[in-house]
Every structure is written in structure tokens, then in C-alpha cells.
Write a structure and sequence with these properties.
By secondary structure, this protein is of the alpha+beta class. It has two domains: 15-96, no CATH class; 100-177, no CATH class. It is built from three helices and eight strands; from the N terminus they run ββααβββββαβ. It has helices spanning 45-48, 51-60, 163-172, and strands at 15-16, 38-44, 78-85, 88-96, 100-106, 123-126, 151-152, 175-177. It has a four-stranded antiparallel sheet with strand order 1-3-4-2. Strands 5, 6, 7 and 8 form a four-stranded mixed sheet that branches.
Length: 182
Amino acid sequence: MQKIEPVKRDEFGYGIHPAISMDNEHININSIPYFSGMRITATSFELDAPESLTEDYFDNDNYDISDWQPTPPANNAILIAVLDTEDGPYAWFATPEPQKFISATKTGRCANGSQLDHGTVRHALPAESYFWGCKSVALCGTKPGRRSVGFVSDKGKTTITCARCAAKLKKLGGEVVEADDA
């Protein structure tokens, strides 16, 4: 994931990240590829700023919000925009989301139907590419054999028992989630 620099605010406290285009009145920040893998959240000036600043802005038409320090939704959130909207100023933050993985075992050939429970090592597979019987490559690099049914996940099982997968998962900061089709 690329490093995203926080927005530089102007003398009045407003600013927008250079990757965000202001050509359109309605911006869909989530559609900008630069911020993929990020959760975009907004913080309202009216609810977040000190009362003296909000009174000054809404009652006295003083649009200088440079003293407002928007509260980030998480410690690793990055300020990407502070803009005035119809409902007053908002601050937008981008927060990196952990990559999601599924815990799954290799099944073997399943020639007689009794081989489904032979896998005991639980590997980490990228959640976005997982489906029952998939032939994806696990984090550790292992993949099902040529005649194998593929990887299968069991409902409720989110532990990773493969040491190499667990080490890579920890290094990536990923999270294990339950498979949708398990």
C-alpha cells in the first residue's frame, strides 16, 4: 500500500488532497483508485469543533476554521480533505484497512468422499479470491495438488496453524475472517 501524505490546509483551514478532483460538485472519494484499501470516514465540524468555533461559523458567518483540529477516527487515520458543504465543514480521513484472509485446509482428491477431513494444517488465503474448492495460493506459497479439490474452509474456524502463513499474516497486519460460503 502506498504512503499517503495528509492534506495541506490553507490559511482558512480548508484543503483537499491532490489525488481528489474537484471537477464535480459531488465527489465519491471511494471511487478514487489512489485510496483503494482505505476506509474513508467524515467528521462534522458542527459535532467535533469547540462550541466557540461553531458559534462563530454558524452565527457570525466567520468561515475561518483554521483553529479546528478534526478528531481522527483512529490513530493511523490520515486527513485527506477539509471542505465546506451545505451542512457546514467536514473533514475526511483515510484509514488503512487490514487485508482479510480465510482459514482453509487442502482437501485432496476426494475420490471416495471420505478424504474431505484429511487436511489438518489451516492455511491463510486472501479472502477476495476465496471460494469453496478454490485453487488459490496460500500466504506460505502452498497450493493444492493437480488432482486436488482445492482449499475448503469450515464455518467458525478462523485459526491459522501453518507457521509460515501465520508469520506472513502477522507481518502484513492482516485479519482472519470467516468464509461467506463455509
